[in-house]
Amino acid sequence: MPNQPASRDFTFSVRVDQPSGDCNRYAFDPNAHAERLVEVLHVAERRPADLGTIPNTLTPDGEPVLVILLVTVPNQPGAQVEARPIALLAWDGVESPRVVAVPIVDAVFATVLNHADLPRERHAAITAICPWRDPFWQPPDAAIAFIRAARERAASKARVEEEKGRRLDAAWQADALARSGRPSDAFSNAEHELRALPYRFQRYVAECLVPSERILLFVTRPPIRPKLQASLTFWKQSRESDGILILTDRQILWLEDALPPDATMVHWGYIAQSGAIERVRAIAVDPGEGASHLAVTFDSSRGDQRVRIVFPSDRHALLQDLVKFVSRWISGTSTRAIRRVYTPEIDPLGNGSARKDKSVDSDAFGDVRGQLTKCIESRLRPSERILASALALSTSERPKSLLVAVTGYRVLLAEDRGQAYREYRIDALTSVTLRRSLVGCLLALAHPDDASVDAIRIIFDYPESDQFLSVFSVVRQLLGQPTARLLHDNPPAPESGRFGYG
After folding, report:
1. 406 closest CA partner among 422, 426, 381, 434
2. Which residue, of 158, 221, 226, 257, has the fewest CB within 10 Å?
3. How far is CA 450 from the centre of its chain?
4. Do 352-498 and 174-327 fall under one CATH topology?
5. Are strands 432-437 and 441-449 parallel, antiparallel or unpaired?
């Protein structure tokens, strides 16, 4: 539609706290693979709108942004509703106004672009539930600016907390939690032994694990001889490197130095390759001449990927223990049944849309990101949202800027100012690799096709690595979701076939 206001393209997620009227409350039943009615919630006083908040926002009063959500049917508490703003309610002397919004999936509000489009009775009813009298009705643009400022305020506070070391310790960091004096869960031997690793590997592990993840076992690999190094299939290097294979309750993670430390004492960075335990179809360790070879096969809806990693022969017993651990997750029969479900843990600071590289011109950065984001958002369904995104700016090696975005079930790539577009379903991927190094950075998504395995390779500069670390983390967590769950929550749009899944 021509001349559409910008507020139509700006959406956000609202968490419903207080429904406007009686409603059903549902919960997912993993045994029946269906939503089950668990409660009929009756409210004492009906309102003209649901009341909710916007996650990861902070007003000047230190609270999340409050939303008056106009609905035709009340939503249950805790429901996430994708909405767009139509107005901002403000008062003299009050620093935290209210955002008035409508659900984007409700056709009743399709023609409501601002508060002037509301019926007089509904307009008056909203004013009546406000905590202060005589509000100022401001346009949607004012609401957009207020939300963006609240997001930046929350991100800034989180950065300050992180710098001061007041963030909660991760569940697997046994040593840190023990020093804090707080009671904690029992830890595995592997988690207690992490302190023995070189400091750089402790830092690499911290970047590649999410807070609730638990480490079950790890196997270190000392620098190997060049003749053994040639057996590495995924990364071939001419110099020796340390490595560590980590088994958590969610992934098999292989970490190695991008370059071995030298006399400069510089940590050049690392290469991380991750595959979900749910994707392991086979795993075995084979002894060789002076070496042991670990072979892991990851599957997808399109094919398999076989990863081989070489270790010195003295690691054979540890590798056998790892194989026994992983074998417990491998089903004896081929099945797509849902074994477990967890929600990806997403750091709002890690989302590329929340960060800007200070080394590039901010106006040019925003213009490129805006064009590519618009290309991707035009292909999203109303219920689909971007979980993480990263922008690789154009360089001499890569003449066109590229934006990669991750949603609940696919990875989308746009480049050349939106003229080129590709997408790949998560269930068609087998593993994800991140090279985060001062000597070169790369994100690679393994994408089997029949008998071969292609890699979607995205080269980026080191200052952009925070964004790509977020994409790496979200993709590798989504790899653990069974295909049935991914497609249950995010069924493909009817027209999606014309874009061609990877």
Report:
1. 426
2. 226
3. 28
4. yes
5. antiparallel
Above 80 in pLDDT, residue 20? yes
**SS3 for 38?**
strand
**Are 501 and 411 within 8 A, CB to CB?**
no
pLDDT digits (tens, 9 = 90+) for 117-151: 988 888 888 888 887 777 889 999 999 999 999 99
Query: Could you give the CA distance from residue 206 to residue 172 in angstroms, rounded to a whole number?
Result: 9
The CATH code belonging to domain 6-160 is 3.90.80.10
Predicted confidence (pLDDT) per residue in 310-335, tens digit: 898 889 999 999 999 899 888 665 55
Cα 214 to Cα 248: distance, rounded to the nearest angstrom: 5
Q: Are 41 and 27 in contact (CB under 8 A)?
A: no
Q: Which long-range contacts (CB under 8 A, 24 or more apart) does 153-157 make?
A: 153/57, 153/58, 153/59, 153/60, 154/56, 154/57, 154/58, 154/348, 155/56, 155/348, 155/349, 155/354, 157/58
pLDDT in tens, 416-429: 766 788 889 998 99
Three-class DSSP category at 328: coil
Instruction: Answer yes or no: is pLDDT of 256 > 80.
Output: yes
CATH match for 174-327 among 3.10.20.600, 2.30.29.30, 2.60.40.10, 2.60.200.20: 2.30.29.30
CATH assignment of 352-498? 2.30.29.30
Q: What is the mean pLDDT of residues 223-240?
A: 49
| Residue 252: band (very low, low, confident or very high) from pLDDT cuts 50, 70, 90 | very high
Structure tokens at 58: 């902070």
Instruction: Give the alpha-carbon dihedral of 381, 382, 383, 386, to 10 degrees.
Output: 70
Reported as type and span, the H/E element at residue 100 is strand 98-103
- Helix, strand, coil proportions of the chain in percent (round to 5)? 30, 30, 40
Neighbours of 210 (CB within 10 A): 20
Residue with tokens 């997001």: 151
Structure tokens that stand for 428 in this block: 């068609």
Predicted confidence band of residue 290 (pLDDT cuts 50, 70, 90): confident
Please report, as a single letter, which amino acid is at residue 36. Answer: R
Rounded distance, CA 402 to CA 394, Å?
8
| pLDDT confidence of residue 441 | 92
What residue spans define the domains of the chain? 6-160, 174-327, 352-498
Percent pLDDT > 90 in the chain is 31
E strand or H helix that includes residue 88: strand 80-90
